[in-house]
Automatic annotation (TrEMBL):
Species: Tremella mesenterica (Jelly fungus)
Taxonomic lineage of the native organism: Eukaryota, Fungi, Dikarya, Basidiomycota, Agaricomycotina
Protein name: Pyridoxal phosphate phosphatase phospho2
Metal-binding listed as a keyword: yes
Coiled coil: none
GO molecular function, one term: phosphatase activity
């Protein structure tokens, strides 16, 4: 069956938040600083890649190297059952396309996939741009998927300023034969910004929503709202906790 599997990355494909993890491994002080910067941006225009970029600069100033950052990413928790799940599905169903839709960044995701031999898994990785500095090889720059200079995406259902995941999913589908060229879409996610793409999916598509995270709360709230303003979620929802359930 020609189907599309969409993976969020942090806490969905892997068992951690990539941005936080790098600092948790390398520097408690900077992990705290990241948190403070995130909370101080709580103004409706919060933009994760901006605060990560600033804090990665501090990490560089503190003397940490590219190898330190890459090493931290290589030990980020990734469940063997998730690897088994995707590789066995790919083998059973070569018609399945995997894409990654993440608010992490190209370098973090690329490093982790390479470590686990999964570089070729995703047809495309839709995420924030990142690059190592030309002059300072230990300094990483993280940018926004939707540059600050672009018109805002206008989404109001939980996406951050730098990326509307629903728009990104629609754009991918439009560029790959349209929604009807896939019999089914399955989406694995956990975050508040994974709600938007679920609204673009249909009955018969499946959302695998991780228990205990923001997306699960949002969906439960959505289903119990009685104010007549239901967002109109049509996708079938299945809750999961651990990667082995995704394999099932
Ligand atoms: Mg996530
Ligand atoms: Zn959106």
């Amino acid at each position: 069956m020609k189907q599309l599997i969409v993976f969020d990355f942090d806490w969905s494909f892997v068992d951690q938040d990539t941005d936080r993890w790098v600092f948790e491994v390398l520097s408690t002080e900077l992990r705290r600083k990241l948190q403070e910067r995130k909370s101080s941006q709580n103004t409706g225009i919060q933009c994760t890649p901006d605060v990560v970029d600033q804090t990665m600069y501090d990490l560089f100033k503190a003397g940490f190297t590219r190898e330190d950052v890459s090493g931290a990413l290589r030990i980020l928790p990734f469940h063997p059952a998730m690897k088994r799940a995707v590789l066995s599905l790919k083998e059973r169903s070569p018609e399945t396309t995997f894409i990654c839709l993440s608010n992490s960044n190209e370098i973090y995701i690329g490093t982790i996939l390479a470590k686990h031999g999964l570089t070729d898994l995703f047809d495309v990785i839709i995420t924030n741009p990142a690059r190592w500095d030309d002059q300072h090889p230990d300094l990483i720059h993280v940018g926004r998927r939707l540059p600050a200079s672009s018109p805002p995406h206008g989404c109001s259902v939980g996406c951050l300023a730098n990326m509307c995941k629903g728009d990104e999913l629609d754009a991918y589908l439009a560029a790959h034969g349209g929604r009807d060229s896939f019999k089914r879409i399955a989406y694995v996610g956990d975050g508040a910004n994974d709600f938007c793409p679920l609204l673009r999916m249909r009955s018969g598509d499946v959302a695998y929503v991780r228990k205990g995270f923001e997306l699960a709360e949002k969906i439960v709230h959505e289903r119990t709202r009685e104010d007549g303003k239901k967002a109109g979620l049509k996708v079938d929802v299945k809750f999961w906790e651990q990667a082995w359930e995704i394999d099932e």
